[in-house]
Amino acid sequence: MKAIFIIITLSLFAAYSCMKGDFIKPGEKKTKLDTLILAGITDTIGVKYYNIIPDIKIELNNPWNDTDTVINIDINNDGTNDFSFSMSMCHPSGLGGGCMSVILTPIGKNEICIDTNNMWVDTIPYMDTISSNKNWSGKNSILYSYSWIMNQIPSPAKGYWTNNGIVSYYYIGTRIKRNEKYYYGWIKLSTNFIISEYAICEEYEY
Fold first, then answer.
1. What region does 98 belong to: left with phi over 0, alpha with psi -120 to 50, or beta?
2. N or C: which end of the chain has fewer CB within 10 A?
3. 181 lies in a domain?
């Protein structure tokens, strides 16, 4: 009687496991995609990390000849650009005023974390959680922008990546959409516009 009870119990457990999707056939592999990533995390399973050598600086080397530049990032290294950084400024010959802006543009269905109070790119601190709970946008968003006109009070600079003589690093929250799945990631950017690292979640076997 005791043996029959044990057999019935094991049979019920196996049936429950199958209904829950936990039963794996011989040779079958299961994959998982995490629904969050920690800003700055580099050495954990399910995260693909890239250390950029040398760092990429968003800058205008010769604004007299070229007043804008674009830096594209392929965050999952699949051959398709996912995010675009652009810097532009008024031509130096323009008298009586000046301007400069740094904009981040998600490409395709990709998105970035923003501050909904002003739609600027959000500054995410180290080890903060990047997930669906953040505010996401697929539109062009300001990293930094300013303009001035002679004999007028300068407008306050826009954006959180204002240097003010002190170089700081923050993380930009990113997510790309592939086959109806979101792959969360981050880009490390300094307040003097140096891109040094980025990472993204990837599917892994378990």
1. beta
2. N
3. yes
Pairing of strands 194-201, 47-57: antiparallel
Q: How many helices (H) and strands (E) does the chain have?
A: 1, 15
Kindly report, residue by residue over 76-115, the tens digit of the pLDDT.
999 999 999 999 998 777 777 889 999 999 999 999 999 9
| Bond into 54 cis (ω within 30) | yes
Beta-sheet strands, E only, within 83-167: 83-89, 97-106, 111-115, 120-121, 129-131, 136-137, 141-149
Structural domain that includes position 32: 27-205
Query: Measuring CA to CA, which residue among 121, 119, 117 is closest to residue 161?
Result: 121
Single pTM value for the model: 0.83
What does residue 143 show for φ and ψ, rounded to 5 degrees? -90, -45
Q: Examine residue 48 and state whether it is found in any structural domain, yes or no.
A: yes
